[in-house]
Design goal:
180 residues; 4 helices; 7 strands; three-stranded antiparallel beta sheet; alpha+beta; four-stranded antiparallel beta sheet; single chain
């Protein structure tokens, strides 16, 4: 069975075998069609989904799991794609986590920071963030606070972090220089 022309579902109607999923790279025919997932993302999402389905024997429940998981995975993929437009990023799989590290340069402050989004391969695709100031006068506490307060797309979140750093600097706030 095909799901959204992207996933090939292998289901046993009797429920005696665990379901399995394979990724089928879609061929975009129109500009509005979804782009295929890059290899690291496809590997991560498919292996995480298969590990979730390994304990599932009910085909109906397996379809619900695939639907909710794949919807969340596509939202994350869109966030990665939008983030990549504004900030160069690296996507790697490490310890059953998908790590997206965006390199952010703040020219006005002569600073560089790395904002890493961490995706766990659990049922909810739990996300977390890590921040590292590489060099410059950006206060790491300002960046961490702005990231914690942000809800929404990753690209907009990183832009909000940069704005918070500039605002803190303009206000005359105490910005700690970090050498790294």
């Amino acid at each position: 069975m095909l799901y959204l022309h992207q996933l090939k579902l292998l289901l046993d109607p009797t429920g005696s075998a665990s379901p399995a999923v394979e990724y089928i790279s879609p061929i975009p025919l129109r500009a509005s069609d979804r782009k295929p997932l890059p290899d690291p993302q496809a590997q991560f999402f498919i292996s995480s989904l298969n590990s979730l389905l390994a304990s599932e024997s009910n085909p109906k429940q397996a379809l619900k799991t695939v639907s909710s998981y794949w919807t969340a995975a596509m939202e994350i993929s869109d966030n990665i794609r939008q983030l990549n437009v504004a900030y160069p990023n690296d996507v790697i799989i490490l310890n059953q986590q998908l790590r997206i590290k965006a390199t952010v340069l703040v020219k006005e402050l002569r600073s560089k920071m790395e904002v890493t989004f961490v995706i766990a391969g659990d049922r909810e695709l739990t996300t977390g963030t890590e921040v590292r100031v590489v060099y410059g006068s950006v206060g790491e506490s300002v960046v961490v606070r702005a990231i914690r307060e942000w809800e929404g797309g990753w690209n907009e979140g990183v832009k909000a972090v940069v704005e918070a750093c500039l605002k803190e600097r303009r206000r005359g706030g105490r910005v700690v220089g970090v050498k790294g």
